[in-house]
Amino acid sequence: MTKSITILTSRLNYGWISMEEIITWIEDSWKRWAFERGYECHFFMAEDTNLNQFAKAGLKSEFIVVTCFNSPISRALKGIRGSLGIQTPWVYYLHGLASFGCWPLFNWGIGDLIHTHDLFVGSCSRDKKQFELIFKNIECRIIPFSLNWNKSIPERNQSGTIRLAFIGRISSQKNLHTLLVAASQLKKNFELHFFGKPDDYGSPLVGRREKDYQVYLENLSREMNLKNIFFHGFMKREEIESLMDKELWTFIAPSIHSDENFGMAAFRCLLNGHRVILSDWGGHADYPAHFPGQVELLPVKSSEVGPYISVEEMVSAIEASDQSFSAPSHMPEYYSELNIHGNFDSIRERMEEKKHLKPFPLEVTVLLEKILTKRNSYLAQNEKSEGIQIFDDYRDVLLQVFYEAYGMRTLSELDSGKTKLLPWVTETNEGYEVEDPHRGKFRLPKKSDLLRLGLLY
After folding, report:
1. Which residues in 80-111 are b (16+ Cβ under 10 Å) and which e?
2. pTM
């Protein structure tokens, strides 16, 4: 009898280009793995799935690969396990779910159906750290995302100008306002190019809306008299890579986004032989081990009002980006299909070992119980939360725990030379007015330690 697996996927998560690349890659990787090992592969698009057909495939499969999360995915899984009692294990890709306690799984009725034969897949080591904050008895494996990439990695020549590129959503979560302040302090010749469109996504987990962020960045550039800033809008990956193909560029992403769990744009730039400067945050932290010398990480520091990155440290990293380095000649083995498929083999072996054992219900931590309670309180005031908010703001102690697991660290050494207020801080007779595009709007008394709050440069 031919062995089989089932893939349950969706196109509804294609709002971001990186998600389109990642989900398609997950699907194709498992299909190739199944073909090479003689497995039959059943493929279902959740938004078009016939429950009876999905149930039949799932019943005879060794496991079900779930490539992403959304409402149709949840309905399909609830249908076969909740309604029909089919206990076929799930291999569930986390993406950013661990960054906020996986509460959507419980909101859509999946959390109570998970058992110990199931397995979650994260894309970075810090995914696993966050995952272990909320679940006690369920396994999380780390398998990186990748690309079907057969080209060699080219050597790049540095020109006299440092060319910086940010590729992605124009969002305050990406901390681009701090990048502009750093650009204003550079002593070397540079250009800073933004590729991407604004999404007005804001920070929904803390109830912060966003509007006209790119306009804010453009105005900030003018106020600081920056002449070499370029906003290109959305461009296809191939067009950007063609533009960057003639010399060495530095990709820079000082993101403090809550689920920065891989960084596909950074990965592509590394494979194209460029230098990369990233926040030491989430999935970014895994890159230096596999691209030594090609990646510089910026520490993300904690404060009472949320995480931040030092302007001075960003300036130092940028000004060092014209130094020579050696890139690997080919994609590192860690991201190769051979390694990825080896991880899939290990999952299959694990499922085989579990097959004759009794599964146990999922056990959650006290932290997750607190998060779900807070989540329910926000649902009760849906007008404020818009069905998304889970944390009060960036000072919420529950959020701090997740950020510490993601890489946020305590400021250890003070730089007494920092005396200037950041552009979004205004001194008043009573104290300070802060309108940080990411951390929010708040007031501080005169006695506040602005250095420890990350409001000086």
Report:
1. bbeeeebebbbbbbbbbbbbbbbbbbbbbebb
2. 0.95
